[in-house]
Amino acid sequence: MKFARLGESGSEVPVVLDGDRHLDLRPLTSDVDGRFLADDPVGRTSAAIAAGLLPELDGADALRIGAPIARPSAVVCIGLNYAAHAAESGVAPPRAPVMFLKTPNTVVGPNDAVTIPRGSDKTDWEVELGVVIGRRAAYLDSPADAAAHIAGYVTANDLSERTFQLEVSGGQWSKGKCAPGFNPTGPWLVTPDEVDPQALRLRSLVNGEPRQDSSTADMIFPVDHIVWHLSQFLALEPGDLVLTGTPEGVALSGRFPYLRPGDVVDIEIEGLGAQRQEFVAWEANR
User: Fold this and answer.
1) pLDDT (tens digit, 9 = 90+) per residue, 30-58?
2) Terminus of the chain with fewer CB atoms < 10 Å: N or C?
């Protein structure tokens, strides 16, 4: 099942995709948020479709695509989770998952324009598999328990400013991860019954030129291990977003230039949908 949110920022309408139709979820929920995702979203939505309770949303194809989840309470990220990306970053593969945070207000629509931060000359792209939590996860006993706590998966772009992240960070990466718009998400939340999270192709392009092309099969720490591991240190709440790392092929490698105003980034994950962002220069009062 695929959930989405359509409309202007702050006024998105929750929908479920039913073939080529976008069915309005508002008879069931005001949004695709933690409360909805924790309460059997697939079962309740399937029953509502079968009963004819969800009307088709008029003009859906003309509406902006928002992030498929309402603003989460937390965005928790894993770094250096592909061996080749760790190598291009000049570090050894980690022995345990490397965790950092993005602020929830970085989560924006998949095709929204992104402003390059003021003073930035090293804005970078990172295609990533995102995991959306559907049930509170705290102190899970084993990775095998993780699946019961996952509501679905999304395409995400973990945008980074490398000077902020690595040179003026003070030793913590989040300074380079939290600029406005630095987490385009979507277009859909795809439920776990339709996804094998360890067998997905991930790709990114800049101005139509290939950059990243890999598979989640190359993760150092798979999704179930990540969710279990994080639960030993924090509580993941319904609606929270976990980003699982990026493969090789980013500008940090030195093989490609960093992003400039006017550049266009396309990213896609097999079965989870594609994104496109145009990058624009920072202007005062924007």
Assistant:
1) 999 999 999 999 999 999 999 999 999 99
2) C
Q: What residues contact 141, with CB distance under 8 A and at least 6 apart?
A: none
> What gap in Å lies between CA 144 and CA 221, rounded to an integer?
14
Task: State both tokens at 266.
Answer: 């396309």
Q: How many residues does the chain have?
A: 286
Tokens encoding 17:
């995709």
Q: Do the beta carbons of residue 67 and residue 157 sit within 8 Å?
A: no
Q: What is the tens place of the pLDDT at every residue in 154-211? A: 999 999 999 999 999 888 899 999 999 999 999 999 999 999 999 999 999 999 999 9
| Nearest Cα to Cα of residue 147 among 49, 225, 260 | 225
What's the CA gap between 59 and 130, in Å, rounded? 28
Terminus-to-terminus CA distance in the chain, angstroms?
37
Handedness of CA 242, 245, 249, 253 (dihedral sign): positive
What angle is formed at CA 62 by the lines to CA 57 and CA 66, rounded to 5 degrees?
A: 80
